[in-house]
Amino acid sequence: VETMARKWHRRDLIGLVIGAAGGAVLGPGIWEPIASVGAAGATVAIPGDYYIPTSVTIEVGQAVTWLNKDSDPHVSTSAPGAPLTFTLVHVPGKPSSFTFSKAGVYPYYCVDHATYNMKLHRVVARKESDLFPIAMEGLIVVGGPELRGNPSASVTISRSAYAPDVDVVKTGGKVTWTNADTTEHAVTIVGTGGPALALPAGKSQSVSFAKPGVYLFYDQRYATYNPKVGLAAAKKGAPNYPVALQGFVVVL
Ligand SMILES: [Cu+2]
User: Are strands 197-199 and 185-189 parallel, antiparallel or unpaired?
Assistant: First the structure.
């Protein structure tokens, strides 16, 4: 099983720059996005009730192939809001593919092991799934002319949820997190090598993303990171449990 870290193990020394709100420039960090952008096609393994890797990137017109290595069948479907809808049955031992004809970011999940909460706009793990509270969900980034990264993006933290939970910026683009809650939050960005962004109530912090790829961010107070699947797990008692306070930054 190929780990995401191995897939994109960059040790280029790129500074993690905290924007004006933070007022500090951190030392060089180790940038290891969990998926690179612009790979030729992609394969996702299903070893159990989870996807490896969680995030894959392809170009428009290319396919993602899933290989179900589990003894159970799985059924992947695009989450509401995806540029195109798809549903794919994964029979044990058989590969299944879907060709993406439209660029964009596609969150998806397995309907057998997760549900979609329309209020939270998030995938929710079913109790009987292997890695509960981690949901069987993934992210497919389809590059193309219709998918353009913004120079900057904003994430608002409200009621212990990120809005939006997927942001797309261009290389060098800046993402700003603003805590609209009355409680403190801390945003940890996996793969940047930087410390967590401390966000007392009402505060903002910005990070510029120097390397293309997909980055996971989560709140270390309410979730832990599971490097095996590249997703965060909600801590018991966290708001919105079993949904973890996590999101993705896609850097093109
Ligand atoms: Cu499943």
Answer: antiparallel
Sign of the torsion angle spanned by Cα atoms 236, 240, 245, 249: positive
- The CA 73 to ligand 1 mean position distance, Å, reads 7
| Distance (Å) from CA 82 to ligand 1 centroid | 19
Work out the burial of residue 179: count CB atoms within 10 Å of its CB; fewer than 13 is exposed, 13-18 middle, 19 or more buried: buried
Residues recorded for the chain: 252
Per-residue pLDDT of the chain (252 residues; tens, 9 = 90+): 334 333 333 333 233 333 333 333 344 455 666 665 555 689 999 999 999 999 999 999 999 999 999 999 999 999 998 999 999 999 999 999 999 999 999 999 999 999 999 988 999 999 999 999 999 999 999 999 889 899 999 999 999 899 999 999 999 999 999 999 999 999 999 988 888 999 999 999 999 999 999 999 999 999 999 999 999 999 999 999 999 999 999 999
Distance CA(106)–CA(211), nearest Å, equals 21
What is the pTM (predicted TM-score) of this model? 0.83
- Ligand 1 centroid – CA 47 distance (Å): 10
